[in-house]
Design goal:
single chain, about 180 residues, alpha+beta, Cyclic Phosphodiesterase, Chain: A, five-stranded antiparallel beta sheet, 4 helices, about 40% strand, globular
Amino acid sequence: MIRLFVGIALPTDLRNRLAVVSSGLPGARWIDRENLHMTLCFMGQVDDPMVDDIDLALSTVRGPAFDFSISGIATFGRGHQVHTLWAKVEADPALQALQAKIETAMRNLGLPIEGRKFTPHITLARTKRAQSSKIAEWLQTGGGLIAGPVRVDSFVLFRSHLGSGAAHYEVLREYDLEPE
């Protein structure tokens, strides 16, 4: 079995900028700079032979290159229990269309894709051990991040290696978008 997802690799300058704000919250587990990305479709564990079918399906996905910008930091959670800090990616029609095409291609292969509405974002930290009051304070001082525009001219099939420490992401294949 192999753990896969499709995403957008971030340029080094954006990863560096995001890493600068990724500190100062006790109890947060910050995502390593090298692992910062935008997930478009998470497939989870798939059988090794399925990788070729996934690659073929992704190679048929077409869409134009586009730009995105970051407009602040928000949280995911239930009620008052926050579990994730993330950078808000401004919704772009080309990004939304690309994500939908990728998700459809994976569903057509019979993969059990999550049914949640796509919220474009970049995960910065897991916050299960952070106090809600500390998260609110951190957002007041560090949540005003603005970045971009960032050019996207490809998307990536990633393999996720899990271990005792932080996950490690490996690029298996990159797929070019159409130049404007």
